[in-house]
Amino acid sequence: TTLTTETTKSTTIATTTAEATTAATTTTTSTTNATTAATTTITPTTKTTTNATITTEAPTAATTKTMATPTTETTTRTTNATTAEATSTGTITSVPPSAATAITTLTANATKAGTTTMTAEASTAATNATTAATITTATPTTKTTTNATMTAEASTITENVSVTSSTVFTEFTVAISITLDKEFTPDLNNQASLAYKELELKLNLVLKDQYRQITGFIRAFVKAFRQGSIIVDFEVQTTQLNYSEIAAANSQLPTAMKSVATLLGDPVASYQSKSLQMPAIIYTGKNMTLTCGSSKIDLGEISASEWTFNGQKIENGKRFEIITSGAISTLAVNNVILADIGLYKCTLKAQGIDFIQEGNVTGDIIKEAPVVRLHSQINVKCREGLIQELDCCVQFPYKVNWVQDKTILPSNVSNHQKSYCIKHTYQLKSCSALPQTKNFTCVVDELADYESTTSLTIFSEDIICKDDRFGTGRTGDQSTIWCDEGLEGSITAVCEGSGNWKTGEDTCIVTAIKELLIFSEQLTEVGVPEFAGALNAVVQSNKSEISNSSLTISVVVNIVNKISVLSAVNQAVMKDVLETVDAIISEDSRDSWIALNLNKTDNSSSELLGSLEGLSDKLVGEFEIETGQVILNKTSFSDPFVANVNSSVTINISNTSSENASVITTMLLTGLINVMPTRNQSINNETDNTINAAVVLVKIDTKIGNVILTFNKLNNTLKLNPQCVFWNFTAFNNLGAWDDFGCTFVSDINDIVTCNCTHLTSFSILMSTRLPVVRPGVKVALDLITYVGVGISLASLVICLILEGYVWKAVTRNSTAFMRHVSIVNTALSLLIADICFIIAASFAKNPGENPGEDYNVPVGPCSAATFFMHLFYLALFFWMLVSGLLLFYRTVMIFSHMSKSAMLAIGFCLGYGCPLVIAVVTVAVTAPSGGYVQGNEACWLNWTKSKALLALVIPALTIVLVNILILIVIITKILSRDVGESVQTDEKHALVVIARCVIILTPLFGLTWSLGVGTMVSSTNEGIHIAFAFFNSLQGFFILVFGTLLDSKVRSVLSKKATTSTSSSLTKVSQSKIGGVSVLDWINRLRGRRYIYHVSQAANSSGSDPSASYSSI
């Protein structure tokens, strides 16, 4: 027997082990002649055994995958046997290296029946002999043991056994970054450099030693170096992903790395898994859900999750809802639009390692939903045999059918440019049992959820309304028609008795603009440039549709406003915005703007102008942009500044408060004459005025004294009353209106109007065919009255309190006089404190009407405090007025009753301060938590628009005014109705004094002039009411001094040191006075036809409380 490697005459047991390395092949070949039939079955798993255990480990790519390593081992066995049969059992353990092929040939000869056992490190066996090999693979989840049995029917058996297997395994790659406290050098960018290789070798040794204990470890190696000290990117490859083991190894890495360098910070590890779970098909308008996580990988506890869309972080809320539960995170996208197509990325943070999944949502997943267009309400007068056509359209590539009672109706197809349209002809057969309604449904093919219905109302009455657009109808009938092609929604009109269709709801909107509005809800500063470009592109491609749709124009304005509230705007963004604005302010859109301005709740025109002012404040850089309707220029200048904008407007600024160069932004908007309404600050309606010049917006970064503007008239035929105006954004509850405050008309020469303004904003001129409604200078007069009046009032109140203190003992000798002076003192004190709080509050507030782009928010804390005390002491003023009124009522009407001084004082203070305090505190408690206590940005005063907190002052004040008016009426009636006895002349004089004193003193003292405030609310444009209200109320303190203190005879007596000794003498003195020598009481009684009256003093003297003194003191 000849053996290739050795010769033996007995049973030979040969064990050969081959270790194969990368790109190395070991081959040992032996040739034998035999006929062998062998069947080998190998099931490759993560651990595969052929009568033993085969372990395979190999690195793969960055994602989990199944891989067959083409490693070949050839085993040749030669056996000499004297028996008829020989059985060979082989045990093979293989550990393949990365990307290597090992071919090992083992040769053994046996002369007799025996057993050969061979051990070789290889991953695959290949057969090269007369041996048939059958190979079976299975999923790498179990351990499989396979026996290979070979039988030969010969005395001498020579066999070549070659087995080929495909090993399948799962691999995980974890990417980790660390920062070394070493200086980065350019050599580390070059993988071929010595520095790179040396550092790489050191790190690889440490990494292998650090991570080799991880279950299923394959290898760890450096991928690259980055700058930032030295940032090392490396990967750890394993056959199992155990987050806790990797996290533990990472925590020990700083210690292990000390031999190389100190680590800065902690290692950052991440594992990128397969794609997100995504839906098959979603139509726009529906909701989409994306799922992130793995049920096969134990991620441990998830501390946080983060989703991004095209690299931008998705915030939870609005259209997006992120829910994380366990190791799964879901992203719900509501109201899906085509703009939601893109790359979504999810990151789950678990035990120091980020689990990452990505998914690309394509146009095959999100599809535009079909938009079915039809006339949903049709009215027709019955006539037998009448043909009524029913039209229905849908955009390509969809198709539709008419259906009635689940039966498809015959229809004719008539395709349009962008739509698939069908027409069904319905014939009226009978006109009995009218009116009646027939319903027809237009259904999208293969999408039964998308359908619309047409209701056909058949009537027999006479036709009242008829036109080509809305058809026919009776009074009160509604007709709903479709929007033009390219728009979605409907237009509804109602038939009026006049025979005309009145348009009601119009919901037509360009679909692409609607989707941009939805997308703008998630707009961030980073996405503004791309979004502004997309908006401009959509608007330019749908100009005609947008111009004819008022709702679409309003939505575009809303989108522009959202862009304006974000941060700095560069030239490219501003150019896209201005081109967008240019398209919606053209002459073609005039009718749409008229419809918008007729809506008293829509301020789209004011919002557009405000957005442009806001954008002008945020421009970065100096540049000029010109479109068809807009010219923008931002530049720096030194005094003076003169600019001629498009030869139609000249701006002249003579001096500024800045010593350095200033930056000015001008924007000429010729198309705004089609946009802005002509209402002014007094009338919330369109007037006979017209905008007769371009609108110019001027902004500057410093203060100015004044600016001179000259405008070329657009219509030279208008000659009457040019007005220089600016747009006041806060007029009429933020609807906005033209206002002339701070702007003065200078001249109108050769159709060039010159204006002088003391502030900067958006200006133009108004021309009228009649005189202006509001007289100029009214605001100046009101301001003058207020400032002077408040000053006089404060001084008067201080004098009043000093005088009351000086004469207090002399004039408070009875309970009535005592309470009367207590009321006067507390009324004066309350008004004094309230006026001081008013001045303090005024220092916090600014006027936002002129420049809405600036920050006019008042400090909430100080403003709320000032408002609280103003509210409290203005209420106290009114309630002490009520105390005075009740005292007068008590002493005049209830003559015979008696109340102690202490009881009267207690009631007075409970009413005067207790009630106001309760009202003020309750108002704060109810409105402050929701931010509705103060106005916030217009003034330090009670809020009206949000919480109606102002009612907490208005209602008590007007109630007290009404009560005091009733008290005055009752007192006068009682005095005139009493019979006063014998001395007619004396009684007439006394009654005259009482009536005069009531009318002259009670009216200002008890706040009757505040009733003028009702007039200012009812007739807000009446200048006379405003002036009267401002005059009487700003001088309230002066009235208290004069009529409450100085006209008191006892006060005057003390001051002149001629005080009378008794109250009765005072009463006599008063009763003897005359006005113009004529007895008013005598004249009144003559009119009443009465000759005898009751003597008031006699009735008073019958009372134990000495009421005659009360008349004198009151």
TrEMBL record:
GAIN-B domain location: 626-773
Pfam assignment, any one: 7tm_2
Topology relative to the membrane: Multi-pass membrane protein
Keyword terms: Disulfide bond, Glycoprotein, Membrane, Transmembrane, Transmembrane helix
Superkingdom field: Eukaryota
A molecular function GO annotation: G protein-coupled receptor activity
Keyword Transmembrane helix: yes
Listed GO CC annotations: membrane
Entry-linked InterPro entries: Adhesion_GPCR, GAIN_B, GAIN_dom_sf, GPCR_2-like_7TM, GPCR_2_secretin-like, GPS, Ig-like_dom, Ig-like_dom_sf
All copies of domain SEA, residue ranges: 168-281
TM segment ranges: 784-803, 824-845, 865-890, 902-929, 949-972, 992-1013, 1025-1047
UniProt main location, coarse: membrane
Start and end residues of each Ig-like domain: 267-362
All residue ranges annotated as the G-protein coupled receptors family 2 profile domain in the record: 782-1048
Subcellular localization: Membrane
Name of the featured protein: Uncharacterized protein
Family listed: Belongs to the G-protein coupled receptor 2 family. Adhesion G-protein coupled receptor (ADGR) subfamily.
A GO biological process held by the record: adenylate cyclase-activating G protein-coupled receptor signaling pathway
